[in-house]
Amino acid sequence: MYLMVILMLVAAPYDVVISEIMYNPDGTSMGPDELMEWVELYYSGEETLNLRGMSFSDGKNTVQFIDYFIQPDEYVVVPASAGAFIDLYGSTVPFLEWTGDWTKLRNSGDQISLYDSEGSLIETVTFTDEWGADNGSGSPADGDGSTLERIDLEGGTDESNWAPSEDWDYRIVTAGNPLCWGTPGERNSRWR
After folding, report:
1. Most C-beta atoms within 10 A of its C-beta, which of 17, 53, 124, 170?
2. Which candidate, 106, 154, 151, 160, places its Cα nearest to that of 128?
3. Cα dist from 182 to 7, 72, 93, whole Å
4. What is the DSSP letter of 95?
5. Exposure of 118 in the CB half-sphere (CA atoms within 13 A)
6. Interatomic CA distance for residues 130 and 13, integer angstroms
7. What phi and psi values does residue 43 have, to the nearest 5 degrees?
8. Residues 99-150 pLDDT 10s
């Protein structure tokens, strides 16, 4: 019985989920896709977890994580370009470094699969540019600067659990309108 309790407290990579996706940045205000795409991870475990060796892939390219010790209830961003990400969001947003080839997420939709350090699948998110579209007007996450946010971090990866970010008070205001660049490293705006 005592051994079972100890095993339950060990950090598990399955406590890590994909929580936010910037797949089609607003190129006008943010920069080109190949520099400004990012994926955010959330960790719900109870102990510190080293993400080293974990990875995600779009089926063509794979990004493998370098040492990063994530704390319980923490978010971390995997940016396409760390330098471009810091220039835009600042140096206080937690991000991790990686090796491999960036996934180059397709603006029309893509698939991101998250793997543990042994190569076992944790989860897959298959999204389209229609996720979060409102009355045929297109999704704000499709090139308007919003991200796709997971609503319930313990819920599934289907479309009903994702919505465009609603963070219209971020860092820059253009023509009187604040830009929406997601909520990297923070609780999602659509979280419940």
Report:
1. 17
2. 106
3. 36, 21, 12
4. B
5. 6
6. 30
7. -120, 120
8. 999 988 988 889 999 999 999 999 999 998 888 887 667 777 776 777 889 9
Fold of 11-178: Immunoglobulin-like (2.60.40)
Q: Which residues are CB-contacts of 160 (< 8 A; sequence separation ≥ 6)?
A: none
In terms of Cα–Cα distance, which of 169, 134, 136, 166 is closest to 151? 166
* Better-predicted residue by pLDDT, 35 or 143: 35
Flag whether the pTM goes above 0.90. no
Residue-by-residue DSSP string for 40-69: EEEE--SS-EE-TT-EEE-SS-EEEE-S-E
Distance CA 95, CA 103 (A): 17
Q: How is residue 31 written in tokens?
A: 């920069």
Q: Are 96 and 66 in contact (CB under 8 A)?
A: yes
Handedness of CA 48, 54, 188, 10 (dihedral sign): negative
Of 6-15, 22-31, 36-45, 133-142, give the range with the top mean pLDDT. Answer: 36-45
Contact of 166 with 183, CB cutoff 8 Å: no
**Alpha-carbon distance 53 to 64, whole Å?**
6
Measured from the Cβ of residue 76, the count of other Cβ atoms closer than 10 Å reads 23
Taking the C-alpha atoms of residue 33 and residue 115, their distance in angstroms, rounded to an integer, is 24
Q: Rounded to whole angstroms, how far apart are CA atoms 43 and 184? A: 14
